[in-house]
Amino acid sequence: MRWTMLMALAAAASVGSAGQAREPATAPCPATPTPVPPELTGWTSRVSLKAAMTKAALGAARLTPGKAVDLALAPTGRVIYPVAPEKPGEPATHGGLATFTVGKAGRYRVALGAGAWVDVARDGRTIASSAHGHGPACSSVRKMVDFALVPGSYVLEISGNKGTVLPVMITRLAG
User: Fold this and answer.
1) What pTM was estimated for this model as a whole?
2) What SS3 class is residue 52?
3) Which stretches of the chain are DSSP H helices?
4) 91: closest CA among 143, 165, 161?
5) Is the pLDDT reported for residue 160 higher than 50?
6) Rounded distance between C-alpha atoms, residue 93 and residue 139, angstroms
7) Is 107 within the bounds of a domain?
8) Which string of DSSP letters, residue by residue, matches 27-58?
9) 10 lies in a domain?
């Protein structure tokens, strides 16, 4: 009787709430991260950059599309965002600002090394993202958000990051 009950419990544990079998566990990632796609080639050659905490300090926090940085962030409560972030994050998180310039209209990708919230703003308004998703499996890119941008200057607003440093890269996508 006990054996039958244990077998029934084991069978029930392997089935999801909708009566479907659970997905098998994914294989662990290799010790060496998966290479990033060609548009993110600069991801592995990051330089350090301190994020601005105010709009007035943006001149020192300049990103160049195609080049990656390790962006040093401040406690979220100390950052004065030009446009309020849609998701400002918990008080114990970190954020910051950086500026970048787009010379050619197109689709641009913001790649992040963590699951922080990202907004792109121009002229006091945020730009709606056109796509978002995870980075390539087993790579150090955690999140990617795409924006359709026209030539001009933009502010990248980061909020809700758990750590004090965030790998960031902006790149123009082909097509």
Assistant:
1) 0.82
2) strand
3) 2-13
4) 161
5) yes
6) 23
7) yes
8) PPPPSSPPPPPGGGGGGGS-EEEEPBSSGGGG
9) no
End-to-end CA distance of the chain: 65
SS3 34: coil
Range of the domain at 131: 39-172
- Using alpha carbons, select from 137, 105, 158 the residue that is nearest to residue 29: 137
Q: Are 144 and 115 in contact (CB under 8 A)?
A: no
CATH number of the domain within which 135 lies: 2.60.120
What number of other Cβ atoms are within 10 A of residue 131's Cβ? 12
Rounded Cα distance between 115 and 150, Å, is: 26
Q: What is the pLDDT of residue 26?
A: 64
**Distance in angstroms (rounded) separating the CA atoms of residues 17 and 148:** 40
Q: In this structure, which amino acid lies at residue 6?
A: L
- For 1, residues 6+ apart whose C-beta sits below 8 A from its C-beta are none
CA triplet 91, 49, 173: central angle to 5 degrees? 95
Confirm whether 15 is domain-assigned: no
Q: Quick check: 143 and 111 in contact, CB under 8 A?
A: yes
Q: Are 169 and 111 in contact (CB under 8 A)?
A: yes
Residue with tokens 């089935």: 15
pLDDT digits (tens, 9 = 90+) for 19-60: 444 555 566 888 887 888 888 989 989 999 999 999 999 999
Total number of domains constituting the chain: 1
DSSP 140: S
